[in-house]
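Notes from the 1:1 (GR / supervisor)

We went over the backlog. Supervisor wanted to see one worked example end to end before approving the batch request, so GR pasted a single chain during the call. The sequence is below; no edits were made to it. Supervisor asked that the structure be written out right there so they could see what the output format looks like.
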Amino acid sequence: MPDYTWKSLDAGIAELRRRAFERACLQQAIPPWDNVERDPEQNTEMARLDRFFDGVPGLFEPFRTMPGPEAFDPLKAQIVNAAQFLTTTQNAPSPVFELPGEPRVEYAGATTASDYLTDWSGRAARQFKTTYLDPLPIQLNGQFNLVSAGHRMMVAEAELWRMARDDVAQIVNGGINAIDQLSGFCDKNGWTVTLTTVAAIATIAAVPIAQAALPLAIVDGVASVAATLLKDDPPHTGTYHGNTAEKVIAEVGRALQDLADRINAQEAKIGLFLSNAAALLNGPHRGTFVPARPLLAETTASNYADDQHLGGVGRR
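Structure output shown during the call:
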């Protein structure tokens, strides 16, 4: 069994094309070697086969622009930085982050600020304490968990493209092996390719990301979770048949199309996951993650002492 990888893909494609052309000639009793006499009909058929197998590299062309797993490293680094910024003494950092810094103790000051506001009687002071400072630990925890889920999503995305590259190489190897299994004349032959490309996000989608236990699988903010949780697909094993070299190449094309369909299906799942995350942030559950603009933000030097804002110290 050949053992070409993504890094040696060009060599594998060239070998697939070479062996397929040679086997196709032999199946039609045409000597494919140089310096061998052939009759005109054989030369014509050999030229046709040569043109047909010239299309082999083009079958793989759409996959050459696939992103590499390393392309997601900058995004993962940004997410790690965001997680570091959101780390407090109350949330538990995910070990996958390997955060270099300590929790931000500044957030603990919210409790002290809240205590100070109890002495002010105005509406803005009371509102800032109850709707901004008091929920802040919950909101920070929700933001941290959302960032954590995003990091795991980027890891899953990078792994998806790594597996896709492996699957392309596996299809090349399977095609070469199938060609080698053909006899000089027409023969029945079948082989299997197991497509491993999968977006492993089921466990991410099911993990609660906020105090209210809202899973990212919620669609449009509706809490009917059971029907919307994303499931991981098992590896798909496809069986391909070809009793001539030309049919084997056609089946290689079918295997590549099956892989493209699988990649698109997995990317659609990731897109759904990200859409649901956006729906959480922009829908009715936004307050779980982001505080509303407080009335205190409208307080000025001229109105801070009225009852709608800070009011007076000690007045009730």
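Supervisor's comment: The chain has a mean pLDDT of 79.
Batch request approved.
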